Amino acid sequence: MTTTTHTPTAKPAYTRPSLLRHRSGLMNKMGTQPSLTPTEAIDGVPVETLVEAYGSPLFVYSQRTIEHRYRALRDELARRYPKVQPAWSYKTCYLDAVCRVYHKEGAWAETVSGMEVNKALRNGVPMHKVVFNGPHKEDAALLAALKGGALVNIDHFDELARIEQLSKIHGLFPQVGIRLNMATGTTPRWDRFGFNLDNGQAWDAVRRLTAGGRMSLRGLHAHFGTFVLDADNYRIGASKVAAFANRLRTELGITLEYLDLGGGFASKNRLKSQYLPGEQVTPSLAQYAEALTKGLADLDYPAHELPTLITETGRGLIDEAGTLITTVIANKRLADGRRAVVVDAGVNLLYTAFWYNFEVETTAPVHGVPEPTVIFGPLCMNIDVVREHIMLPALPVGTRLLIRPVGAYAVTQSMQFIHLRPAVTMIGLDGQHGVIKSAETLDDLVRGEVVPDWVEGAASVPGVEPTAPTPRAQTVALPRLTGALPSLTGATPAVGPDGRLH
Ligand SMILES: Cc1ncc(COP(=O)(O)O)c(C=O)c1O
């Protein structure tokens, strides 16, 4: 028989009730809040100093982050594989200043069009350090690349035939690479570019290439996907490429000079489909390097003949180096009750907003109760949404926001639609800062536009007198607004000769 003993419980100690100030950034039933701890400076430079100098919106690149990430990737690879050569993926951001930071660090150039090849050459990259990929290599660029010894990776059979034709006409015997695609576990399957490895097409391409008697094979290229969150896909891909290289060597006697295993590493950005933030799910550069080189361990090559591992990582190197400063220009209440803020940067500058939920940070403390908010850009267009849903307190007009990471693709994919594009700046290693691409002007916009005589001369609209063409001098130079937004109350601000509001 059991007996139960009861010990008298002590009376709980009295706790004074307290009121806790509601701070955004904490978890509540609406889900994780964005951190609204203000970020006042970028690489030590106050955001307000940057806006004073260059206006809002404004792209800001951090040279320190660019160099840090590049060195990290190079070192993680070099630690695991003896011959490594990173190439900078131009399309990810081909501003000269950015490219030159990478080239100064030793990166080659990975290009996908004649324009990019020319940009790389202008940046001082010799042709034999240019990787030329892409499905459409224009004839002039292709010929120059073949003559100059660029690493030309063939994308399809028609290109193969064209190179052969060009080679015959110009008496060339080029060494080329071919691009491969294969199942590595990424979804959607990345099989649009290159020759398929799994179904034998890649093998056929090599046979066709060598049978022509004009070209020889020097390398293989595979870009396994983009924003690949599972590093193991690289192990699978690299292992398949290694097996193919082994077969080429044993069956056709081809010893390859390079394996270019693409980019595709995810940044810490957050895809709309992604539940957890990038901080938690994005593999580190070390994990990607580990996976790639583990797959390459299947190469059956003597050590002194191992092919060089080329990488052409874009986003994974530069995304975190880029910030877009934007300013709240209006608050709204939508018909469904949601709060909306309108900012001065939209999908014209962040095409990438269609698939990312960017981090949004303030630069000064903001107060108030966070509510579901939609952030609209300044375009007169319904699809101009920077964030569809974010918990934010009321943000007064003039509040600065930092949107990041935006270093990858945002600048190269930005468009001039309704608004002129803003300046792009870089902060140097010692905190110096400057413009790396000027803000666009109306003259930039109309450069190249032509009004034909027959349009100019026609009095076509009934009742409307034809006017003389508007000479350039008559266009009014609108000052670029910098600094704090003027108060909406009180005297109308005047624009001074320095273009600033007084
Ligand atoms: C051939 C090639 N290489 C490199 C890259 C860079 O990719 P990521 O920015 O995902 O690293 C791309 C981008 O799509 C590409 O198409």
How would you sum up this structure, described in words?
- The protein has helices spanning 47-54, 63-78, 96-104, 114-122, 139-148, 157-170, 201-211, 232-252, 278-281, 285-296, 315-318, 410-413, 442-446, 453-457; strands spanning 41-42, 45-46, 58-62, 84-89, 108-111, 130-132, 151-154, 175-181, 195-196, 216-222, 258-260, 308-311, 322-333, 339-343, 359-362, 371-376, 385-392, 400-404, 424-427, 433-437.
- The chain is 26% helix and 20% strand.
- The protein is built from 14 helices and 20 strands.
- Strands 3, 13, 14, 15, 16, 17, 18, 19 and 20 form a nine-stranded mixed sheet that branches. It has an eight-stranded parallel beta barrel with strand order 4-5-6-7-8-10-11-12, surrounded by seven helices. The protein has a two-stranded antiparallel ribbon with strand order 1-2.
- The protein has two domains: 41-59 and 320-437, Lyase, Ornithine Decarboxylase, Chain A, domain 1 (Beta Barrel); 63-318, Alpha-Beta Barrel (TIM Barrel).
- It has 502 residues and is α/β, with parallel strands linked by helices.
- The structure holds pyridoxal-5'-phosphate.
